[in-house]
């Protein structure tokens, strides 16, 4: 067996003592919870409504792919700021049609050293044996000098060991690599550690210690501390490992929860500039637009800047599940005495490696999140229902995302009208001769059931966004793509509940480029930040009036791009 190469001289492998100590603490928590609730999970977790869109999307006839609903960013009581058991979360994920879930617990000393990562791994392995639901283990990495990232490792004997080693060696919070002054030596050092971390994961894969790993930047403009330079540097560190960023953050109920004011924003994007925020983003970047991150939602903006370089830089969406909006469960109780602190403190978490089992109060509690699959959904086109195929599909960019169950299925095919090349789908590259006329065929399967808000969603339009491949930028802090714009819109309201198809004519192509799609329920839009010539009717931030922050009345769909190369 290939040996794990630790990035530090000292061994980071788990000792028997730390694993046992975490188990003892977990036992104490279970006993405390049982005394309060009568059982480890006394009652099934309630939700406000129960009607869902069930199951996996049908495999499209033209591409032959199986479209699976994936949530790659979920927290359980093995995170210091979440509260539900894995079992409770997986039950709800299955109810809302999720096929693949990833538990990405926050990096913490308790998670790494007090058994949290190992106990979570045991429960995940058990779930793999007992459920149809596919379950991945990961962490939410505090990127040195920057935000957070999803880090996923393929199932295998070394998955937890690699995650723990990575957590201790490279986490920005645990190593004190946070909030450096802009342009300081500390910032440069910390940025280099982030690049080193991604490269190290790639090395573990290439040497066969793990089968696969994926890194995706989470909520990138929440504090605007993921600079354009860093977004490029992480990708350049290993493009096989670092795939892209969340196009839409979780916490979509953050302006609609019990303890949330209407002035708050979807995604908990209600921040202002910090000393370490990148000066290359405007102040409006701190707000989501239609629930999507500014870096994704602005046509001709940061995402298009990356795509225009020819980068295969993908976007996703997820729940970032911590605390369900209006749910009745509260955080459970830690043991009393014997050095335990009062309440749900970080000190108690780090001692136990987890939080206690939650307690049902029968009264609505605060929270910003929806269950996995309830509102935010990432659809991944896999060649089979396997972990290998899912991770490879994500790497290939066969991904489209939507909110509120806006649509149920989507198939997108770019083709040469003279049949001179094999058609391609999302994430692919169509290679044609100069002057070849291209067409884009889009098949939509409408949602046929009301979502959790009692709304039967309807897709009002599909926008075609087109850009040129202009090559590597001279300035790595470039944030715009001046050749990218919305070039066409198809109105789609009134099609009913049956599958329908629309086609776009791209004309004869003479230069390398890409296309991507966007759609919405048509309820809120305005001129994009780059002007009406670029985006006349794009997503906009919601206001502060009562109800304006409801995510259910402003839902959008985005695809990853398809590229075309002219020979």
Strand content: 15-25%
Rounded mean pLDDT score: 91
> What is Rg?
23 Å
The low-pLDDT segments are 8-61
Distance between the termini: 45 Å
Major sheet summary line: 15 strands, mixed
Number of helices: 11
- Work out the helicity level: 10-25%
- Which structural category do the helix and sheet elements fall into? alpha+beta
How many strand segments? 20
Number of separate structural domains: 2
Question: What's the shape?
Answer: globular
3D structure, described in words:
The protein is α+β, with helices and mostly antiparallel strands and 567 residues long. The chain folds into 2 domains: 36-376, no CATH class; 401-566, Immunoglobulins (Immunoglobulin-like, Sandwich). Helices cover 22% and strands 23% of the residues. It contains 11 helices and 20 strands. It has a 15-stranded mixed beta sheet that branches. Strands 12-14-17 form a 3-stranded antiparallel beta sheet, with no helix packed on it. The chain has a two-stranded antiparallel sheet with strand order 8-9. α2 links the parallel β1 (66-74) and β2 (100-106). α6 packs parallel to α7. The model is unreliable at 8-61 (pLDDT under 50).
SSE layout and pairing:
Elements: H1 16-37, E1 66-74, H2 86-95, E2 100-106, H3 109-113, H4 116-130, E3 134-142, E4 148-153, H5 159-170, H6 185-206, E5 213-218, H7 228-237, E6 242-248, H8 294-297, H9 302-308, E7 314-317, E8 329-330, H10 346-352, E9 359-360, E10 376-382, H11 387-396, E11 399-403, E12 407-416, E13 429-432, E14 437-446, E15 461-468, E16 485-491, E17 500-508, E18 513-520, E19 556-559, E20 562-566
Parallel strand pairs: 1-2, 2-3, 5-6, 6-7, 13-20
Antiparallel strand pairs: 1-10, 3-4, 4-5, 8-9, 10-11, 11-19, 12-14, 14-17, 15-16, 15-18, 18-19, 18-20
Helix pairs in contact: 5-6, 6-7
């Amino acid at each position: 067996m290939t040996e794990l190469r630790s990035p530090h001289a000292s061994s980071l492998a788990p000792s028997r003592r730390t694993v046992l100590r975490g188990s003892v603490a977990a036992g104490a928590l279970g006993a405390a919870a049982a005394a309060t609730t009568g059982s480890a999970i006394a009652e099934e977790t309630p939700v406000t409504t129960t009607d869902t869109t069930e199951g996996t999307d049908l495999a499209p006839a033209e591409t032959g792919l199986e479209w699976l609903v994936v949530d790659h960013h979920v927290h359980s009581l093995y995170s210091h700021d979440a509260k539900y058991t894995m079992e409770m979360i997986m039950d709800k994920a299955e109810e809302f049609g999720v096929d693949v879930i990833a538990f990405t617990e926050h990096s913490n000393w308790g998670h790494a050293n007090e058994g949290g990562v190992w106990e979570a791994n045991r429960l995940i392995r058990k779930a793999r044996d007992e459920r149809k639901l596919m379950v991945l283990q990961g962490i939410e990495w505090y990127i040195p000098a920057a935000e957070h990232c999803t880090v996923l490792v393929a199932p295998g004997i070394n998955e937890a060991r690699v995650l723990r080693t990575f957590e201790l060696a490279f986490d920005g919070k645990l190593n004190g690599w946070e909030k450096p002054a802009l342009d300081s030596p500390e910032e440069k050092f910390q940025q280099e550690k982030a690049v080193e971390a991604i490269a190290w994961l790639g090395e573990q894969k290439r040497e066969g210690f793990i089968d696969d790993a994926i890194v995706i930047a989470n909520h990138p403009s929440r504090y605007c501390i993921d600079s354009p330079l860093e977004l490029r540097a992480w990708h350049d560190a290993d493009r096989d490992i670092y795939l892209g960023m969340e196009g839409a953050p979780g916490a979509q109920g953050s302006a609609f929860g019990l303890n949330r004011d209407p002035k708050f924003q979807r995604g908990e994007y209600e921040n202002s500039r910090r000393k370490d925020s990148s000066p290359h983003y405007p102040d409006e970047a701190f707000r989501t637009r239609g629930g999507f991150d500014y870096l994704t939602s602005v046509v001709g903006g940061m995402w298009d800047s990356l795509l225009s370089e020819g980068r295969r830089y993908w976007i996703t969406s997820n729940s970032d599940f911590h605390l369900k909006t209006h749910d009745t469960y509260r955080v459970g109780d830690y043991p009393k005495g014997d050095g335990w602190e009062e309440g749900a403190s970080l000190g108690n978490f780090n001692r136990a490696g987890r939080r206690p089992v939650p307690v049902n109060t029968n009264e609505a509690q605060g929270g910003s999140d929806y269950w996995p699959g309830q509102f935010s959904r990432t659809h991944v086109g896999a060649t089979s229902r396997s972990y290998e195929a899912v991770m490879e599909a994500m790497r290939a960019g066969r991904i489209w995302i939507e909110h509120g169950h806006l649509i149920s299925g989507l198939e997108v095919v770019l083709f040469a009208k003279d049949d001179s090349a094999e058609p391609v789908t999302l994430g692919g590259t169509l290679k044609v001769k100069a002057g070849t006329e291209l067409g884009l065929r889009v098949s939509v399967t409408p949602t046929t059931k009301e979502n959790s808000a009692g709304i039967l969603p309807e897709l009002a339009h599909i926008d075609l966004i087109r850009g040129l491949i202009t090559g590597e930028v001279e300035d790595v802090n470039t944030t715009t793509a001046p050749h990218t714009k919305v070039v066409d819109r198809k109105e789609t309201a009134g099609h009913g509940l049956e599958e329908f198809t629309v086609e776009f004519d791209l004309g004869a192509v003479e230069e390398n480029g890409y296309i991507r799609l966007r759609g919405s329920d048509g309820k809120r839009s305005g001129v994009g930040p780059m002007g009406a010539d670029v985006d006349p009717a794009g997503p906009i931030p919601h206001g502060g009036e009562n109800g304006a922050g409801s995510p259910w009345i402003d839902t959008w769909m985005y695809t990853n791009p398809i590229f075309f190369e002219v020979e």
